[in-house]
Amino acid sequence: GQQVMQIPQYQHVQEGEDFTTYCNSSTTLSNIQWYKQRPGGHPVFLIQLVKSGEVKKQKRLTFQFGEAKKNSSLHITATQTTDVGTYFCAGQMDSGGSNYKLTFGKGTLLTVNP
Amino acid sequence: ETGVTQTPRHLVMGMTNKKSLKCEQHLGHNAMYWYKQSAKKPLELMFVYNFKEQTENNSVPSRFSPECPNSSHLFLHLHTLQPEDSALYLCASSQGQGLMSDTGELFFGEGSRLTVL
């Protein structure tokens, strides 16, 4: 079936180090969204990318959408303990019959050592 | 504070019980969703409702029965569940219609943690 692969599954960093998580889809995406879920919490929307090659920044977070609209990345510069959580990508893809399902990756769990 | 409210937050039930999960969104959105979140698995879409009409049943077993009486309320009725159904059940809403090429962001509730004994 159609999947969105996300790596790495886990990442542990020292506070101040950078962090990157990657998403890949076998299918061209109409858009990709990123969510953050704190431990014990629920997913919270971060951003949506729509255009090929799009780059968006939110303070220390940089989001990229690949030229082919099949991959995306989230980069955090100088991590802080408040960045701890699981980061999910979710790609919107044609699942047939003009339906576009939002398919989530498994997520990357980020832990930060103070 | 989330604009999507789920109750109960925690539920323990036996395999022969019947229970229901409730979701209410206060955002005026047109689409509502049920997702299942299990350990080490991606979020799994279960059901999608647009304007209170079901538009997707993602091959979910019949022991899960959704109900959407209006565009603000969504229920998930549970009966004769199995232990492997234990998971966090998340309700979400979006302004854009579900299954369109751009639904817009999903607003999730805090989830109902279900344990089936």
What would you note in describing this structure?
- The complex is a heterodimer of chains A (114) and B (117).
- Chain A is an all-beta fold and 114 residues long.
- Chain A has strands at residues 4-7, 10-14, 19-25, 31-37, 44-49, 55-58, 61-65, 71-76, 85-96, 99-104, 108-113.
- The N and C termini of chain A lie far apart (40 Å).
- Chain B has 117 residues and is mostly beta strands.
- In chain B, the strands form two sheets. In chain B, strands 2, 4, 5, 6, 9, 10 and 11 form a seven-stranded mixed beta sheet that branches. A four-stranded antiparallel beta sheet of chain B has the order 1-3-8-7, with no helix packed on it.
- In chain B, 37% of the residues are buried.
- The chains are: A mainly beta (114), B mainly beta (117).
- At the A-B interface, strand 4, strand 5, strand 9 and strand 10 of A face strand 10 of B.
Entry summary:
The complex is a heterodimer of chains A (114) and B (117). Chain A has strands spanning 4-7, 10-14, 19-25, 31-37, 44-49, 55-58, 61-65, 71-76, 85-96, 99-104, 108-113.
Terminal residue distance of chain B: 32 Å
Helical content of chain A, roughly? under 10%
Radius of gyration of chain A: 14 Å
Global mean pLDDT of chain B: 92
Order of helices and strands of chain A: EEEEEEEEEEE
The number of distinct β-strands of chain B equals: 11
Q: What is the mean pLDDT of chain A?
A: 94
Class based on secondary structure composition and strand pairing of chain A: mainly beta
Helix content of chain B: under 10%
What are the segments of chain B in which pLDDT stays under 50 over at least 5 consecutive residues? none
What string, H for helix and E for strand, traces the elements of chain B in order? EEEEEEEEEEE
Oligomer: heterodimer
| Outline type of chain A | globular
Largest sheet of chain A: 6 strands, mixed
Largest sheet of chain B: 7 strands, mixed
Largest interface: A-B, 27 and 22 residues
Q: Strand share of the residues of chain B?
A: over 45%
Tally of alpha and pi helices of chain A: 0
Q: Using the alpha-carbon principal axes, give the shape of chain B.
A: globular
